[in-house]
Specification:
Protein name: TetR family transcriptional regulator
Number of helices: 9
Helix content: over 70%
Strand content: under 5%
Order of helices and strands: HHHHHHHHH
Radius of gyration: 17 Å
Length: 174
């Protein structure tokens, strides 16, 4: 059902995806859909959560640490990113965009053990999540190719590295 959801979002705006359209495409009945999901929104939220490419964090760490010269997403990660681009473009949903931002913040907080009781850390992670969503929106409906990789590398070097250093309490380097 998740695959059917992404296929539909690639063809029509999220607002046009219904439980019936998913059921029809998958070939199951309403009871099966509602056994697993409370609603289309619930289904979509779970699909987004399953598509957040946490592998990008490892790649960014290697980039910022100098272990790699650039960003090159593997096919699985690229596919996940392209799915997320669909949700932040014109056919997306404020609910799903907000959820994606929250998920990105949660991933960074867990991965880097950030202190979310600090208002400034909350502001930095919110800024970073909004920036990533903005980049995803630029690629909505377009392939996330080498140009996307270049944008991601630039964002990593210019914003992500310094923002994480600040959030972790490390003084920025001059």
């Amino acid at each position: 059902m998740i695959t059917a959801f992404w296929g539909q979002v690639a063809r029509v705006p999220f607002a046009e995806v219904t439980a019936f359209s998913i059921i029809w495409e998958v070939g199951c009945n309403r009871a099966t859909f509602y056994y697993y999901f409370d609603s289309v929104d619930n289904h979509a939220l779970r699909a987004v959560a399953a598509s957040v490419p946490v592998e990008i964090i490892d790649l960014m760490e290697r980039l910022l640490g100098g272990a790699v010269a650039g960003v090159h997403l593997d096919a699985h990660t690229r596919s996940a990113v392209e799915r997320l681009c669909l949700l932040v473009g014109d056919g997306g949903s404020p609910l799903l965009i907000s959820h994606l931002k929250e998920l990105l913040q949660q991933v960074w907080v867990r991965r880097f053990d950030l202190d979310t009781t600090r208002e400034d850390v909350q502001a930095v992670t919110a800024f970073m999540a909004s920036g990533i969503v903005g980049i995803l929106g630029q690629f909505a409906g377009r392939p996330c190719d080498a140009l996307f990789d270049a944008h991601l590398a630039t964002i990593g070097r210019v914003f992500t590295g310094p923002a994480l250093e600040f959030a972790k309490g490390i003084p920025p380097q001059a």
